[in-house]
Amino acid sequence: MHFGFSYIGLIWLLMLTVPNVIWTKNQPKDYDKYAANENKILLIFERTGQVIVTTAALIFSDHNFKGWNFWASVLIVSFILMVLYEIHWIRYFRSSKTMEDFYRSIVGIPLAGATLPVIAFFLLGIYGGNIIMTAGSIILGIGHIGIHHQHKKEVTGSKPKRHIAVRVITMIVKVIFIILAAAIFGFLITAIAGRNCNQIKSAVKYKDGIFEQTYVELNGQEQQINIFGQSLDNPIIISLHGGPSGATGYFEYCYADFLTDEYTYVTWDQRGCGKTYYRNIKADPDNKTLSFDQQMEDLDALVDYICNRFGKQKVILMGHSYGTILGSRYVQMHPEKVEAYIGIGQVVIMKDWYGEVYSYEDALAKARAKGDDTTGLENAYNAFCNDPSINNVVALRSAVWPYHPMTVTADQVTKAAIFSPYAGIGDARWYLLSMNLSGKSVYDNLRKPLMDYMLTFDANEFDKTYEVPVYFISGSADWVCPVGLIREYMDSIVAPDKGIYIIEGCGHNPQTQLPEEFASAVKGFLNNTAK
Question: What CATH number labels 209-349+408-423+457-530?
C-alpha cells in the first residue's frame, strides 16, 4: 500500500455522494417510517464501513490508473458499476419517488442503490491491492445492503411460496454460489492482506537500506529488477534465475530475506521472460533479440549498473539451474567484476539432456534391483528420446521420481508467490504462459534459443580454472542436476577457494525448501571468502 492522494478515489466518492445529497431533498414517501426500524448492529457496520471506505479512497494512491493491463479491466468494471449507480439515481429522480421506485433493480442487479457502489468500491480495492479498502467495502456492504434488504422486504411484503422442488433447487444453487463466492473472496482478501502485510514488514525492515522494484535499460531493453537489503554498505548478490526463462524474482524474498542483514540482494527478470518480456512485448513479441550471448551482454550491463550505482568494484553472482550456466560462464569471462560465485543445482552437463539420461539410468538400475516392473519407466524414457519436449521431460521425471524421493517435501514457493510484495500481473501472466495451458507451446517457442544453447552445454568443455571462489549448494535428492556430476566437476576445477554444501532431503530447489539452512550455507561460504 502506498500513501498519497487518489484522484480515482475522489471521483468515485463524488459519484457516490452527489446523488445522495440530492436524495435528501427527494426521499420516498414514508421513508422515515422504515428508517426508524433499522437494525442497530447493521447501522454500526454501515457507519464503520463508510468511514473506512471514504478514508481509504482518498489517502492511498494505489487506486490511481496504472496503465493498460489485466487489472485495468477490474477498474473498468468498477467504473461501469458506478455509472449504473448514476443511472439508477436519474431513473429514480424522474419517477414518482416511491419506495418501490427506490428499490427497483437495474440490469437484474437487486437493490441497485445499495449493491452497486459497494461492489464498485470492493473492486477498486482489488484493483489497488489495498486490503483496507477491500475490508472496508465488505463491512459497508454488510451494513448498507443489509439495511436496505430489510426495507425492501417491509415494502414488498411476503411472497407466495414456490413449489417445494423449486425451493430446494434454488436453495442448493444459492448454497453453491455462496460457497464459491466466499472461497474466491476469501482467497482474494487473504492474498491481498498477506501481500500488504509483507509490504509493510519489508518497508520497515529495509527502511535504512533499500526496498525497490524498478526497470533498468540494458542493451536496448528495459529489464525488471528488485533490490532489497538492510544497508547500502553491504556486498551485493545478483541472483540469476533458472528455467531457462523461469522468472522467480517475485518470490525469491522467501529465502533472500535471511541474507539481507549482510548482503544487498538483486533479482533480475532476464531478457525474454517475466515482467521484462511484457515490458518489451510490443517491440519484441517473438523474442527475436533473445540469445544466450545477448543475455551474457545484458548481465554484464547489469553488473556495471549495480557497481556504478552502489559504488562497488565487484558483485557476488548466485545462479540457480540454468542461471548457473549464465553465472559460471560470466565468472570466467569477467573475473575482475566478480567477488565470488555460488551455483545452486549447478548444471554440469545438459548436452543432449545428459542429466535426464543419468537420472533415468540410476532409477532403472534401482527398479531392476528391487524387481519392479520397469515398463512404465522405459516407456516414459522412450517417449522422451523420441520427443524431448517439456511435457515428456516432466513425464520422465515423474516416472523416475519414486526411485529418487525427497524426504523434505515442504516448499515455500506457493505461499511466497501468493503473498509476495513484489508480484505483479506480469508474473502471473508469465507463470500461466509457462504452464502451456493452450497446448500450443508458446512458452517453448519463446525460450527456444536458450533451450537450444543449454542442450549443447557441457561445463567440462570449458576452462576449469576460476579466478574467484566457487561454491556449490545442492539438495541431496536433486536428480535434475545430479549431485554426483557436481561433485565430480568440483573436484576437477581449480579456484582460490571451492566447496560444496549438500542440504539433505531436498531436491532441485533447496533454497525454497529449507531457506534458513540455505541462507546459513551461503553466509558460511561468503564469510570464509571475506577472511
Answer: 3.40.50.1820
